[in-house]
Amino acid sequence: MDSRHDDGAAVALLTEDEAAARLNVQPSTLAAWRLRGHPDLPFVRVGRCVRYRPQDIAVFIASHLRRSTGKGRV
């Protein structure tokens, strides 16, 4: 799998520790999410290593943006 932008530039992949730091969670939380498959956060396997694309982290953050903690009343 080639990790490149549409313009052909290589994408810098984040380590599990770097991705966890950007999300302010523990690396073990990312491991649990991968195991469960939820929440949906794409990752890349490079041999035995797990890597994350910065743009996937940004999309994940944007998709979890909320304005309130309530679900609303029916």
Characterization of the model:
It is a single chain. With 74 residues, this protein is an alpha+beta fold. The protein has helices spanning 16-23, 27-36, 54-63, and strands spanning 14-15, 44-46, 49-52. It has a 3-stranded antiparallel beta sheet. Strand 2 and strand 3 form a beta hairpin. The model has no long low-confidence stretch (mean pLDDT 87).
User: Which stretches are poorly predicted, pLDDT < 50 over at least 5 residues?
Assistant: none
Average pLDDT over all residues: 87
Helix percentage:
25-40%
What is the straight-line distance between the termini?
46 Å
Order of helices and strands: EHHEEH
Largest sheet: 3 strands, antiparallel
How many helices?
3
Strand order of the largest sheet: 1-3-2
Radius of gyration: 15 Å
Strand proportion, as a percent range, falls in: 5-15%
Q: Strand pairing plus helix content: what structural class?
A: alpha+beta
Number of strands: 3
Task: Based on Cα principal axes, name the global outline.
Answer: globular
